[in-house]
Structures are given as C-alpha cells and as structure tokens.
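User: Show me sequence and structure for the first protein, then do the same for the second.

Assistant: Starting with the first protein.
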Amino acid sequence: MEKVKYYLGIILFVLGASVQAQTIDLSGEWKIALDSTDRGEREEWYKKEFAQTVSLPGTTDDAGLGTPNSLAPALEKPQLLRLTRKHAYIGAAWYAREVEIPESMAGKPLVFSFERVMWRSELWVDGVKRPQVEESLTTPHCFEMPEGLSAGKHSLVLRIDNRKLYDISENNLAHAYTNDTQIMWNGVLGKMILKVLPEVYVKQVDVYPDVERKQIRVVAGLENTSGKQKRAKLVFRIKDNVSGTEKRMPEMNVLVPDGRKQIEAEYAMGEDVALWDEFSPVVYTLIAGVRTHGQKAVQENEVSFGMREVSADGNHLTVNGNRVFLRGTLECCVFPLTGTPPVTEEGWMKEFAAAKDWGLNHLRFHSWCPPEAAFRAADKMGLYLQVELPNWSLSVGKDKETVRFLYSEFDRIVRSYGNHPSFCLLTAGNELQPDFDLLNEMVAYMKAKDSRHLYATTSFTFEKGHGARPEPQDQFFITQWTERGWVRGQGGFDQDFPCSDKDYRQAAKDIRVPLISHEIGQYAVYPDMKEIARYTGVLDPLNFKAVKKDLEKKGLFEKAGQYLEASGKLAVKLYKEEIERAMKTPQFSGFQLLGLSDFSGQGTALVGLLNSFWESKGLTDSRTFRQFCAPLVLLSRFEKAVYSGSESFSAWVEIANYSNAGVRKSVSWSLKDKNGVALFEGKLPAVTASKGTVTSAGSVCVALNKVSEASRLTFEVEMEGTEWKNSWNIWVYPELDSLDSGEVVVTQDVDKALASLEEGCKVLFSPSYKCVKGLEGKFVPVFWSPVHFPKQAGTMGLLCDPSHPALRFFPTDMHTDWQWWRLVKNSRVVVLDSLRSVTPIIESVDNFTNNRRLASVFEARCGKGSLMVSTMDLLSDGIADKPEVKQLLYSLLRYMNSSEFHPAGKPVTAEELRSLLLPQGKEEVQQTDATSIYN
C-alpha cells in the first residue's frame, strides 16, 4: 500500500476532460417467464424467446404476475397478519432482452449492474452463463465481463430466484426478506446499467474523517484489467456542496500492477472545514480520477462524505465530540403501495421530512439495510441512521453458510455505503439468539474492518444470560431492561401509580457504554377505516376491510372514528411520558420508538401516530409532539396527577439540552384552568443549561385550596424568548365531606340492588370488581397487536362523552387520561353484546379482532326501577376514599338524583344482571404484568 500526505489547497482548477461514462441503460421492456418448477436451466430457457413482457425496474407484483389472491376479508389468519399481496410469486423468474453494443464499447471490459435484487441472481450473455452468482439482499448485483462483447446485438438473460437462501429469521420476519412489511418480491429495483470498465479505474474509495486534526484519510482501490502493468496519474478533488467550489490535490504518479493496487493518502481540509451533524449536515463530494499514460481523459469515481466522527465517551454517545441524544423511530421497510423500498432520494424525502418535523433525529433500519438513496437523503437532512444485517434469527451460529453470508453482507454494506456520514451505527441484527460468542466475534471483525461506525452484537435479545448488560464487544447497548430493571414504560405504566418524577437512572446505573432504549411504546391504535381507500397499489388491506365488515355487521361502524380517536389520544399521552422519562435519564443516549408510523405486519400492529403512509392520523400535531421530542425539552417532575383541594402542587422543572449550544434563559410557569386562565403563575431564575446536559431550572409550589370545583388544570412551562415550551395535566378535587345519595340506593350487594329495583327505586350498583365477570381493567392499551400477542386483556382505552350529564362534575376528555388510572385498575370491563338495550356511559374500546360492546359504567331500566351499574369499584375499602373515586361517585349521584336520569329501552332482567357476576361468594383476581404477553 502506498501512502502519501498532502495539504489541500484552496486553488480552484480545471482538470482535463473526464471519461464520458460509456454506459447503456438496461431499464425498459424485458421478456419474462416464470419458472416455479425449476425447469428453466435444464431446458435451456436462456436460449428461448419468451412471450410475456414486463417493465424493469419493477416487480412481478407490479406486473400482476403470480398467484392471484383468493382470500376474502375475514377476522382470521392470514388476513389479519399483514397486508395481502394481490399477486404473489415465489420462485425463479427469467428476464430476457437484447442489447446493442456500439463500436465505442466493443471489446472492452464490461460490468452489468442491477441495484437491488431479491435474492439470488445469475446472468447469461449470448447463451453463456457468467461465473458469478450474486446473492446480496442489501447491495447491487454486479457481473463483470473482462473479455467484453463485440459490436452489435447480444442477448441478456437474467435469472432471479426470490426463494429463501439462508436462515436469517424465524417465520420470515426479518424485514430484508418478509411479506410482513416489504414483500418477497421478484424483479429489479433501481439502476440497471451496462458499463465499460477502463483498463485502469478507481474501483473503491473510502474516506476516513479525522475531525480533531481537520483532515481526511483516503483509501483508493485501483483496478487494472489490461493484463499488464500500467503507469497512471491519480488525482483527488473535493467539492464543497454548499459553495460549489472545488479543491484539488496534487497529481500522484502510480505504477499499477495487473489486478489491484491500494493507495492511501492524507489531506488537510483546512481551518474552515465544516463538520456534519444533525444541526449542520454539510456534505462534501470526493472525486477520485485516474488517467493512464497516453490518455487525455480521466476516469472518475465520486463518493459523498461528511466530516463526522461518532464515538462512545463512556456511556455518552458523541458526534464530533459533542454529546447527542438519539430521538429515533424504527424503519421496517413499510411501503404499502409498492411493497418495496424507494430507490430515489425523492422517494425517501417524505418519510425523512416527517421524522424531522416530529422532532426525530434518528432512524433504526430493523433487520435490513436501505438502498443508496436513503443514505444520500439522510446525509442532506442530518439524520443519524442505524442499519442492521438482514438477520432476526433465533438460531444464530447453527448454519455455517448463513454465518458466511452475514459476514459477506457486512463487507458489502460498508463497502457500498460506509462513506455516508448519516451511517452511524450497525448491529448484527434484531433480538438475536443464541450464539453470543459468534456475535462478539462478528463485532470484533466489524470494528477492525471499518472504524467509521459504532457496532453492537444485537438490538436487544431475549436470550437467557444476555440482553440485560452489554456484550464485551458492544460499543453501544440497545435494551428494554437491564439487570436493575426496565428502561421503557412497558414495565411500569400499568403497574405503577401515575407520577411525573420517574426516570430510568437506577436501571441504567453501571452501564458503561451508550444506552438506547429498545422499541419503546408499541401502544396500539384502532384502525382508521378511512385508510382503506389509500391502498391503490400491489397490496390489499384485507385486515382493514375485515374490521370494517365486522363493525357494519354489529352496527358499530359509526363509532369507528371515535375508537380511533380515543385509543390514539391515549397513545399520545403514553408516548409523551415514555419519551420524557428517557430524556430525564442522564445516562441515556436515546430511544427508539416502535413506532412513529404504523407497522402493517406481525398481526396488524397499528402503533403509530402516523399511518403507514407517514401521514398524521390527526391524534396530535407535530408542533405539539416537538414540545417533548426535540433537541431541547422542558421537563417537570411531580409526584402524582390527582390532588385533593387541601393539598399543594409541587413541581421541579428541568431542561434537557441536546441542542448545539448552551442556553441561559429564565423559565416562566403557570397553572391554568380549562379556559386557559392562569390561576397561578411565576418565573424561575435564569439558569445555564450546558449542551449535552439535564439541568435543574428550579421548583414550583402552590396551595390548591383556591380551586373551588373539580378541575383539570394545566401546568405550563416556557423558556422565555424561545420556541421551547411544554405542559402537563393535573386534576384537583375539592374535599367532599360527605356524599348525599339522596333518592338513590347505593350498594355493592346484588340482592339488595334487585330488591330495591323491584320497589321502583333508583339504584347505583357498584360491586367489588373482583366479583365481576369481565375483562381485566387495564390502563394501557393493547401492546403491539392482539393477533401477535393474544395473551393480553385486549382493550384499548376508555371512550366517553365529556358532556354527558353523568360526568358533569367529573372533568374528563373523551379518552383515558391519568386521572382514570386508579378507577380503571380497580375495575372489570363487561361485555354488553347480549344487553343491547343498556346505555353505556363509560365504554372501553375493544381491540379490532373482537369489536365487542364494552363498558364499565352503564344505565338501564330494571324491574320497576332505574339502574346505574359501575364495574369500576366505587365503594370498597381502600378505594372509596380516593379523591377521583369519590368525585366520580359524586357526579353519578348528582345525575341520578336529577330529572335527566331516565333510562330507556327494554328492562334488564334480574338474571341478566346476575350474569355479570361470578358465582356468589367467588372472587377472581386478574393481574397480568408487563411480561405476561411473552409467556
């Protein structure tokens, strides 16, 4: 290897004419024949004419080839597992066309390049098979032909086999090869070219930035195809993509032997060099040119790079020495119109622009690696990308050929995309098991191979003895729990009383590398029926259509929009608390949402605030989301969400500053009523919040005895003179010395209730929830998907009408919020499908696989009287004295004692009321925890 060192001057230059790329575009019309029985090679199809045509780039799905879908919408598998391919083909397909070689390209070495193929490809030219067999899922398939072709017409036949080659995942769930997100397509995506290879050319260029020394190390691989030693001149120039100016290094005279030669050089970038990060994504282009002796023209190869160094400073993730906090989401190759990833920058801009608009700076490509265009787009937008080998396997290490393939895929990925500054992190795959000796060996290999990125063995694992602490070779650590506890809300939101003063610092203690919380959220949202009309491509939303059909059959379709809104706004609340806990944790280096957008597979996991098209569902807006997901976030800590009027509200304000500068500003605060009127307000003294820190900004304490009626108050904080602000709801209930039941009989006893109803009384019946036959009361909605994880209660939050007179004295929105936590957790949700005449007041949204009428508070006629049933326990010891419980009981009683309470419809019988209860004397405790879904 030759090494040289130069200073990169400021001189502008004009180089001799570059070689006009001698290329032929192979896109367009091809002939095709499907070969599902593998007869083609045996019967020499590479010599035959095919009758059917297809357009490439494209897929057999695009062309409507393969087995047509015969399934109808139904709430069953496989329809509920994923979107359904309208036409599916798995097997070999033969693609043929002619190409005409001009005299200028005749006899010269050639390369055929196909940007993305799934999975194996082979090429015949003029009926002769090329020796290469290509099998990458992540990089272009290239076939070199050193002997070239004569001028005139030649036949090309490309055989593509999209059957599974290696054991890279369980149940074909790895997103590089799956039908759950992208599809198992057959065809070619992206650029398809035939290109001349000059006698001597620059085959590979790698740029290694040294930010501290303001220089780059360039490693260039030269290829000599002439069969003999050649003298050549090598020149590098760098283009500033902002100013458009170019800088040239002195020419290098090199002697290139037959075959390959590697040249290494260092160049100073100058004192004014611009660095690359999320705030200033400056991209340079390096053009490497080579000219052999006697040539006037120069063959060039250009690559994009940025002056970016990603490092681990203890447990802090840094970019160019500055601490960063990853605010990320997963990218799972969900493209519902095509079933394939975009291969143009424009194709990625919608998704990446949405990510930035919603405050994110990071995407994790789960078990796949995107095409070149994604990196180019992310470079320009300042997004930090994590890519993964195509690997989600529970049998890592058991098949040597799969191991060989994964090593080769890593080599191909860093060779093809390693220069991009957006390419920051890489893991060997998702939730891998079981061979961690091998995985550590792989990461050691990666670190030695390319130092421009950070590497880890896996994005979390369920393997026993692993997953709770970093592996020896890990340079960062992605997990949902440590040896000290959970680091995502799944482990606490349904179990722990709501408060705003929690974080994960105890669980993160003693983690010595950057810690990133794994796939946080996963709060399912009810399907949006309006989305069905959007699926105009190769995938049919039979899952959505089945839900629509079931709702129509049950007379519930008009409530679909309310189900979406109620479940979705609960998800917003949970995502906010989830993200804020992460940002309060000083040892954290980031989080990865699952996800900001919907996941169309694995049982229809509609966990996004955006749909699969990366468009908002209208549950919140990006500006509001950025209040708690941004480079700088104002945070608060307070011990609970519900207060009595005799208590004080105390809060501590913090500033999480991961922006590009320190700030010194004062923070104003207020506690406002529902009309936006400030009941209390003030200003905290200015503090300095250095970049890369979580800083205390001061505390607030106010007595709440001024609040004269049950109220939802909003605690707002705002950094003066900036866009940064945030807010949280609390609920205040003035003391109720006693509850006057008036004309209402209040009881937990069903016999007493029925006797009173026969006497024509008004009865509020609230049995102990442990005696009720129903679903477990859960504060959190369905986790991920009720199809993928069926062992869960399956409800998706409350639904009510805030203007209903029964709730007049219990301030609420139409959806679950934190004041409902204790009421929900001490409840059972009853199924009302057989009691069509009752009127629900507080409903629960059922998951989309069942679509039952669910409620925990409802009214009905019964006997000669009027009945209110609450399966939220309002009367048992230990619960009845809580402020929110007393307030709901008070509100229901005020309603029942008014003229507005007159249940209608067919009376409920005594047998029907008793049917809601367990056998007399029997109690049942239903308590699923955060890990129950995995059992």
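Switching to the second protein now.
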Amino acid sequence: MNDGSASDLRFALLGPVRVWDGENPLNAGSPQQRAMLAVLLLRRGRTATAPELIDAMWGEEPPSQATATLRTYASRLRKVLGASALVTEAGGYALRVAPGALDLARAETLAAEAEKRRAAGDPRRSRELLAEALGLWDGEALAGTPGPYMEGQRSRLTEWRLALLESRLELDLELGGHTEAVSELTALSAEYPLRERLRSLLMLALYRGGRQAEALGLYADTRRLLADELGVDPGPELAELHQRILRADPALAAQEAPAAEAPEGGGPAWVRPAQLPATVADFTGRAAFVAELGQQLSTAGGRVMAVSALAGIGGVGKTTLAVHVAHEASEHFPDGQLYVDLQGSSPRPAEPEVVLASFLRALGTPDSAVPDSLEDRAALFRSALAGRRVLTVLDNARDAAQIRPLLPGAAGCAVLVTSRVRMVDLAGAHLVDLDVMSPEEALDLFTRIVGEERVASEREAALDVVGACGFLPLAIRIAASRLATRRTWTVSFLARKLADGKRRLDELRVGDLAVAATFELGYGQLEPHQARAFRLLSLPDGPDISLPAAAAVLDMDPDDAEDLLESLVDASLLESAAPGRYRYHDLVRLYARSRAESDDPPGTAPAALARLLDFCLATAARAYELERPGDRAPHHLTAVSRSGLPLDCRDSALDWLFAEAPGLLAAARQAAAPENRAMLRPAADLLLMAQDLMESGIHARAYEDVTRAVVEAAHAAGDRLVEGRARSLLGQALGMSGQFDGADAEARYAMTLGTAVTDPVTCSYAPNLRGIIALYRSRYQEAADYFDRALSAFRDDGNEPGEAAALSNLSRALLSLGQKDRAVAAAEAGVAIYQRQGVTLRLGNGLYALGIALAEAGRLEEAVDRQSEALAIFRANRQRLWEGMTFYRLAHSQLAAGRPRQAAAHAEQALKLLRDIGGDWRRGTVQVILGRALRAVGQHDRARACWTEALELLERTSAPEIGEVRRLLESTASVRNPPTSGPTCASSGRS
C-alpha cells in the first residue's frame, strides 16, 4: 500500500497495466481491476461515472452485480494507491495523477515536442525525442486487460505507435540512416503488409542505398498484394515515388542532414547518443551483480578504461542485467551511452567496421567523413571519445577479437560486454560469470509476470515451475508468459506439463521466444569434436561428472578431455562445478540429449554409457580391494573393457567412493533401463563393490532404490545370476533400514537363485543375511545354522574376510543360545582374521561383535575398550549407521558397569546418528536403553516418555522387544515423578 502522497505514484499503460510507489511495484490486482484502473487513467483526472465504467469494462453484457463489483475494485485500488489518489465524486471515481507520472502522458509530451523541433529545423533532436517516446512502450499497450473499451483503446494506441515509428524512420532517412533503416523497415513491412507508408519508406531507403532494382521489385509486390487483398491500386504517394525512382529523380538522393552545433575549434559536431534499450519493468533480483557491476562503472573515471565482461549460458539474463546496470550508471556518463547487438551467437556476427561506422554516425560524424578501413575507423572512434565520458554496451559478443577494435581508449569511458564466452583473453577486463537465479529470485520474477493472486494460492506449484525451468530467467519468463495469457490454466497444471522431461523444452516456447532456440545458437558455433562431447556428456544421469569419468564417456585421454571440457565451459554450455568436475544446467542437458538422439548414429549412447559403467566398476573394484584385502568378491566380477583409477591407499579409495556416490548409483540405475539390459551384470557388480554406501546413512536410501531397480530389470530379463546378487544386496539394504520381513524374503529368493547358478557370491552372502535376520527375530538356533552355512560357503571360496564376518555373526547367535565362551572365541577368531588380512572397516564390525560378546560374558571394561576401538574405525570410514549402533552398544556396556550418566550420553549420540537411518526397530531399541539409563539417574518421566516412543516405534515392526517395553512402562506407573516442564526424551533424543 502507498503510505505517501499520490505524487509518489507512477503508472504504465504502454504495456501491461502497472503501478509503482517510487521504485517499488504495487499489485494492481486482477485483470478486471487493472481494466478499471486503466479506464480511470485514460480519463486523465476526469470523473468516470459508474455507468461509464460498467460500459467500458463489460460492454453490453455486464454482470448482475456490476455496481457492487466496481465498489469492490475501487476499495481494493484505494488500499493500494491511497485515499488521496483515488477519489469518489459526482457519483463516480477519479484518479489524481501527478504530472509526468503516466507513461502515456509522457509519450504524448515527447511526441508533441518532437513535432515542434522538426518544424523548427532540428531533425536530430526530433528523432531523439521520438525514440525516447517509443522507448516507453513495453509490449502491447493495455496488455492483459479485458473489455470492449480496452480493445478499442489498444487499437488506437497501437496505431499511434506505428505513426510515431513511421515518423522516426522518416527522420532516420532524412538524417542519412537509410542503410541501417532497411532491416527495421523490412521487418515492419512484413508485419504490416498493407501499410503503404512503411512500404514507401522502405522503397526510398533501398533506393538511397543503391538498391534500385529491389525498390522497384518492392513496388511490384505491393501493387500485387493490394490488388489481391483489397482490390485497389497503390495510393498516389507510393505511385509517385515509383515514377521518381524510375526517372532516377536527383531530389530523391540522400540530403546531408543539418549538422549539430560544432564545438569550438572546429572538428565534427558532437551528438550525445542515448542508445540503451529500455530496461524491463519486471527486473528483479541480481542485487549482488548489480552492485558489483555498478561499482565498476561508477568508479570508471579514475581509470584508463573500465571493461566488465559478463558471461553465462543463453537465457540466463545477461542482456537484461547489462541494460539495467547501464541505465543505473548512466548518470556517471554524461556524454552518452552507445549500444549494439553484436550478433555473436548467430552464423554471421556483426563486423567491427560496420559497428564502428554506426557508432561514429551516432556521435555526429557525417557519412562522408567515416574512413574506409577498420583501423582508421577505430582510431577515429577513439579520437571522438577522447576527453569524454561515454558508456558503451557491447551485447552478445562472439569473442574478444570482435570487440577489441570497439574499445575506447579514453579515461572515464567504460565498456560493458555480454557474451556466452568467458573473455579470458581480454586484457584488464573484470570478468563476471552470471549463474541462474536463486529460488527466491526466480519465484519473484514468476510472480511479477503472473500476478500475486495466482501464485499466492499455489506457492508450492510455483516453486515446482521455476525449479523445472532450472531457475533460468528466460525459461521462467516464457513459462510465466504462457500462464499469464491462459486464464483457465492453474499454476499446478503448468507444473504438471513441465514435469515431463521429454516434453519440457517443447513447453518452454511462447511467441518467438524458445529456450531450445537459445541453446541452438551456442551449439551451432561448436566444432564437430566439441559438439560430440557436448552430446555424449549429457547422457549420464549423475548430477555432475568427474574428469576421469568424462574421459571414459568420450573414450579419450584425460588430458585431451580436459581441454575439450574446458572449451565447453568457456562457451557457457558446461559448468565447472569444482576443479575437475563438470555439470550441465538441467535444460541444457535436455537440449544436449535431444541433439544426441537426433545427431548420433544408433548405438552411440549405449556405448558411451557402457564405457562409463566399466570405468566405475573397475575403480570401485580397486577401492573394494584396498578396503577388504583378501576378499574374493572382486574375482567373481564380469570383465570390463576399461581400466579404472590407480587408487593407491584406503583413504583415497574411500574419498573416491563417497565423492562419486551419486554418479555411481545413477550409472547403475541407467543400466536397469530396458534399452540398456546388456549392462545389467556390470551394474549389479558395481553395487556389490560399492556396498559400503548402503551403510553410510547418507546414500543408504538411494542405494536401496537403485538395487531394487536392478532386481526388477534382472527378473524381467531372466538373468538369474544378476537377480540373485541384486536380491542379496537389496536384502542387506532392507535389513539396514529395519525392514526385516522384506530383507528375509529377498535373502530367501537370492539363496534359491544363487544355488541354481552356483554363484559363490550369492551362495555366501544370502545365508549370512538370513542368519542376521533370524538373529533380529530371536530365532537363535536358525541363525546359527545359517551362519554355519555361510561359513562353509566362504571357506569353499577361499574368502577369509567373509569367513571372519560369518564368525562374528555366529558369535551373536551363540551368545543368545547361552554359549558365552564359544561366542567370545568365535568373535576373537573373526577379529584375528581381519587383523591378519589388514582389513580396516570390517575389523570395526569384528570388534563390534567381540565387544557384545565380552559384555555378555561380564568382561565390561574389555567390552568398552573393543567397542571404543570399533567406534573410531566407523567414524574414520564414515559409516554413520555403525557409528550409531556402536554408541548404542556402549550405552549397554556403561549401564551394566554402573555408569548410567555415560550410558545416557552414548544413547543420545546413537539417537542423533540414527535419526534418519536404521529404521524404526533400531531407534526403538535405542530409546529403550536411554530410558533405562534415565531411570537409573532418577529421571522417571523422561524414561517413561522414551519407552512410550519406543513402544510406538517397535509396534510398527512387530519386534519381539514389545513385551519388554510394556513391562517397563507398567513398572513406572507407580513411581512417576510429578509432571515437569523439562525436556522430554523425544525432544532430547532428536536435538
């Protein structure tokens, strides 16, 4: 709401109907409400009665409650504009608008002044005024406002704009700008083919440019068009011009324009150029970039020349930002602003000598004084700017070579360059890389175009839309514009249309704007080897890709691949996420994939993905061998065609595995697609070699989802070996998350498959997993039997680390069967194997099992020591789930040792680590031990809260511990402390 005076308000009708309070945009409401505002503005302060407003807004079919609706709109507008702006008088409404506050009024004033200046013999000033008036338009006048009155006014204003444009073009020809005017006149004549005045001006411009045959041909085309469409001949003005061209009338030749006042001492006249395009009215965000570039330009006076080069992908808003910043900084350049679109992304970029000629004419140099050579024009341009302060905007530059001749050399001048290419070879330039908008900026831009009312009720859907647009300003503008012109669409409907990745680029198209067309310009400039890399690197689904992995996709040496990838980064078609890592913008990736589908021969994409998968498997196998020396699983992998990275130590292996986890899992998932079934075996083997990810917590859910996809694909393909391995791994993942029934089902199925194909991997992994599940389900003898079976399978394969794992698990079963000495011995045997093999991570699992056995045997201090050693190993290996479970076991040992405070602290740590992983059963059992520790220190209410939550968690899994928890709750019923306002167990455990 405007809290100030009406003089702070500014209004726009020459485009969408908008209003500002100073520099702050205000919400003008629904289309009908904006229509009412527009009617009042067009009355220029005169009162509009209710019947007049109703007739203007609804015509002959007003709604039954039209008068009440008017009052509602008026009330809303008064809240936005202030009571002093919108007044009620004489049975109607009037809008008080300060002088110069309405763009239409300013345009009329400028047009009238232009007419006076032309009559006074000053065509240059007249043209400047007309250009300024035309610059106030921002698209179609009164856009988006309904009603018959609006339609009539829209037509009137469109006709007036065309008349102003014709007058300005006539002045262009009068001032010798016939060559430059041809392209604009050609476009306008095509848009308005029956407008004879435009055709007349184009004929004259062509004639004065030495293109007499084209001028005569245009007349013939016009005569035929008028006859076909209207059944008339060309008017007398056009017919006379045709005859004068046939006669080569000397009076048609370009006349030398009246010169501007020459400076003292002679020399060419100085004209202050003001060529900046209009800034967009809905510009938003980019505050840091505006400040950075504004600082560079505002301090240009103290330097020889300030050059700022703005780079980014197509559609990221480089031109919009540059023009906005240039307008903001224009006060620092009192001698003018030059602007040119260098067409750097087109097949035929602007030639520097042509641009210089245009600049020199804009600065007052007559055509006859413009030199012929590029060097001479550049020298004259620098001379013309000497001692002056001029800002030059070089938009859409192809490269540094194109813009070097266009740089002034004078102190106080500045240049702002935009390009898709980073100007790293432009000496002294301040380089700025423009990224996509933040989600908040993107939503703000979307809201400004669509309207606050539509977005407010569907904010989540709006966030989905801008997210689908990849926060790219051009894509957001297109999506918002489509929605703004389709009143029956909801934001949710648009979000659903954009959710289809295969159709998204097709949806991001409106009028002559299209995201794909913007990317096409950059793609068209690539060399063949660059274009191939651009297509192939888009195929992997990972969020980014490392240089070695990219080299595998491209089948290249890493050094050569790096040069190629960096060239794509310089072209703003690829982003460098970090040193040695690369990624695509989401929409650029979709475009690149569409080109791969259309441009590459069949089989190219699967071959590239297969190379990537082989590289990932080879490297993961090396990491596995470093982590598990002596393990036989790598000997049972499918053969690969590529070598992996030469990892040389466990730490580097672990770093690689976790850094590449998203890409590894994405590669395995892609292999499960129907068209990639030939890659199923290496995909399953990759999951086998990367199984540490399922225990990390961070990647556990993703690992489970990908493994399930491979299981389903293998089952559909009838590949029993792959299905058995994948089901065994899926069972492990489900067990890690506490889904024991599902885990047991997968392990049982895996055992059947492994036996059928005699796979040593599945035949050992699956019974070991079934034993673990039986242990959790309190079926201890069954667990021991499965562990014995797994132990035999590991020994038959010569897999000592596997043997150690089975011994550690068997120790747990023996404990539950009351055989404590045998349990300790089995755990110690497992630890000994791990130590002999030099295994690190799995030594932690062995120490974990030994700690449990020692605690049950009453050797509590030894148990705490072994569990502390296991904790250190799990921390070092980033195994968050096992770290949490070790804290849980430490809590048990400390409580048994009579140290409940330490036990409670360890249980709290376990809850924190297992908050999002491990499943309900593990969190429930931790709550049980935490409650026991809290009861031991006298916090009975907190203990009861813990057990209450534990019961809820355990009941979800039908866990055998449910009876124990109920007994604990019953035991506290008679000893509860009075309720307090202190923290509950649940809040403490999840802090």
